[in-house]
Design a protein that fits this description.
Order of helices and strands: EHEHEHEHEHHEHHEEH
Oligomer: single chain
Number of domains: 1
CATH superfamily: NAD(P)-binding Rossmann-like Domain
CATH class: Alpha Beta
Shape: globular
């Protein structure tokens, strides 16, 4: 990684949450390589969301600085309202601006639904969903005030969903629900925030991380030679572009894996059969059968 004075993010201030390891680390390094000043946020918790350790985030900052870039550590809990606000304020206090927020932080507590505890449900949805909303809410509050004051805003939000969130994944109902919520939130944010100069998009990445290397060990294994499709750095280019001033799309979900990139087509209304009057329950079966037969086949649930 080498810093750049003429990258597509030159001069932008970027926050990346969960940036101490895996995808977040790769994103932070990639933004710095394209000229951004980066707030490297990471609580340093375990995969299950326990404990704190500033070392991973500091290591990323050290790597960016050694390459000639600018970066600072932030250890705030993104799911805590006040702490998330402090993270946004740290960027503003340090560099006087904030241009891009990348919400990447997350944990997993995988369990089949029949065995899942309420604590496991709450822990995962708190980090993924609340941990996205709190930083976004503080950031857009700042950008809206700028816009209302007449200051041009060219801001970007990049959230992290998952194929599990848009297609489903066995033993990950809490994670799937949170990621689906992120996807829906993002398209709503795009619709609401465009008036203030804020574009919002989401990614559904497939890459090696603490969340995937055990659950999908064979798929995530590093190859002995050739292109490493599951290297998290493969995902970062689309994240950097979405977080840059060059990005000109909003409200989209991008699937990315290895060298592949696609736009995921979300829920779309299928064929409609209108009786023009109230249905009788006994009539419904034949109509549903016809509607389902004419609908696209759904994507398979991971692990089913």
């Amino acid at each position: 990684m080498a810093s750049s004075d003429s990258g597509i993010c030159d001069g932008r201030v970027v926050i990346v949450t969960g940036a101490g390891r895996g995808l977040g680390r790769a994103h932070a390094l990639a933004f710095a390589a394209e000229g951004a000043k980066v707030v490297v946020n990471d609580l340093g918790a375990s995969l299950a969301g326990e404990g704190e350790d500033a070392t991973p985030a500091q290591d990323v900052v050290d790597e960016i600085v050694a390459a000639g870039g600018e970066a600072i550590v932030n250890g705030d809990d993104v799911s805590d309202w006040d702490a998330a606000g402090n993270m946004i304020q740290q960027a503003l206090d340090t560099w006087g601006r904030l241009d891009t927020l990348v919400c990447n932080a997350g944990i997993v507590r995988d369990r089949m639904i029949v065995n899942m505890s309420i604590e496991e449900w709450d822990a995962v949805t708190r980090v993924h969903l609340r941990g996205m909303f709190c930083p976004v809410r503080h950031a857009v509050g700042h950008w809206r005030e700028m816009s209302k004051a007449g200051t041009p805003v060219d801001a970007r939000i990049v959230t992290t969903a998952s194929g599990a969130g848009i297609y489903g994944s066995v033993s990950q109902a809490n994670y799937c629900a949170a990621k689906a919520g992120i996807a829906s939130f993002t398209i709503t944010a795009a619709a609401e925030l465009g008036r203030y100069g804020v574009l919002a998009n989401s990614i559904a990445p497939a890459a090696r991380s603490r969340m995937t290397e055990e659950a999908f060990a064979e798929m995530m294994k590093k190859p002995e030679s050739g292109f490493d499709e599951m290297d998290p750095a493969n995902v970062s280019p689309i994240v950097v572009w979405l977080g840059s001033g060059a990005c000109n799309v909003s409200g989209r979900m991008f699937e990315t894996e290895g060298g592949r990139l696609s736009v995921a087509d979300g829920w779309q209304r299928g064929d409609v059969f209108d009786k023009g009057a109230r249905w009788e329950p006994a009539e419904i079966g034949a109509i549903v059968e016809d509607l389902v037969n004419h609908a696209p086949e759904p994507m398979p649930v991971y692990g089913a």
